Amino acid sequence: MKQFKVQSFVLVLVAFILGFSEFLIVGILDDLSNQFNVPVATVGYLVTIFAMVYAISTPFITVLIGKYNLFWSLLVMMGVFTFGNGLSLVAPSFIFLAISRIVTALVSGAAISIALTFAGHIAPMSKRAWLLSWVFAGFSIASVFGVPLGTWISTNFGWRMAFLTIIVISLITLGLVFLSLPRDFKQKGSSILGQLALFKDRRIQIGMLLPMFNLAAIYVFYTYLRPIVTHQLHFSTQLLTVLLFVFGIASIFGNRASGKLTEGWGLHAMPTVYIIQFILLIMMPILFNSRWLGVGVLMILILGMPLLNSPIQIHFLQVAEQNYPQSIVLASSLNSIFSNFGIALGSATGGVIVSSLGMHAVGPGGAVYTIVTLGLVIWLNQINRNWQRNGIVTE
């Protein structure tokens, strides 16, 4: 039991440092804009670039490493990740910084996919949803402690010191992975085509669109969270750090609630979540007339953002274990892959909206994606019911 707790902590730490690096840009948008003399909207596209590279590279890398030892694969991925953040640390120009973020993004998705696969491997069945929700919570913990810490470091000591902090924690994480995780873990061997058979399943085809549109809806506004809080809701830079911390706490509670959902209603609870999300997003311009009411709206939306994580991750793993055991690592990666497609879609949409309509329009823009997500989850629930009832997936 002690070994399991240590291994669980290490996997959460892997998720934390990956999340810290990915989401840091949101907290230092203004500082990078001033440093490189580029518009904030342009810096926001670093989020889009990272997410697109992450999403596109992850399936290729996970398929290629699927037949190799996953312990050593994780160490390699984390090593390249640390190197990429080192490049960000010394970036002399905005273009160089963008290239360094591409290097980091290339391996981030594969690293979290392997970590999630390890979580499913080391956890007893009764603890699986608990551990998966905690690994996902690692990203929220990065929002609670990492992004506000990075924002504070950037404000007081410069944004390069924020990347140095990431590098130090990455090296510590590498050492803990080396010392704690099982070294002989491999999934069932299969050809690349054998692993890709997973994508023929309608439960997978519809399921993987859910995290994409779920996060697209949120990232239309979340990419611009710092300017929303400081310019639209008129909070000071000092209060910004406090609010980012509070939002991160809300995200952790959302991840923990996600684990509980998996033990209960699971995906069947999500339509209600998306109806509430739609109402809040469409009403955001009006609700933001009161800055504290605006903070409440942001908290509820950020609380709801991770609720899908554990139910959809368990859905992917169960489909793979029952029908495609050769594709478990690939199945473990689908949530993170399509979440990042969603981040890219949402942040790009947010950039267009902010440039053409202004910051006040990001909420209604995100609401459009929420409607798509609602339709998808209703469809997937119907497909799952048909599968359970008839043993087939209807078209």
Please give a quick description of this structure:
Helix content is 82%, strand content 0%. By secondary structure, it is mainly alpha-helical.
Describe the structure.
By secondary structure, this protein is mainly alpha-helical. It has one domain (2-390): MFS general substrate transporter like domains (Growth Hormone, Chain: A), CATH 1.20.1250.20. It is built from 18 helices and no strands. It has helices at 2-27, 29-36, 40-65, 70-89, 94-122, 128-157, 159-180, 192-196, 202-207, 209-222, 225-232, 237-263, 270-282, 284-287, 291-304, 309-323, 328-356, 362-390. Helix 2 (29-36) crosses helix 3 (40-65) and helix 3 (40-65) packs across helix 5 (94-122). The chain is globular, with a radius of gyration of 20 Å. The N and C termini lie far apart (44 Å). The mean pLDDT is 86. Residues 7-385 form the Major facilitator superfamily (MFS) profile domain. It is found in: Cell membrane. InterPro entries: MFS (IPR011701), MFS_dom (IPR020846), MFS_Efflux_Transporters (IPR050189), MFS_trans_sf (IPR036259). GO terms for molecular function: transmembrane transporter activity. It comes from Lentilactobacillus diolivorans DSM 14421.
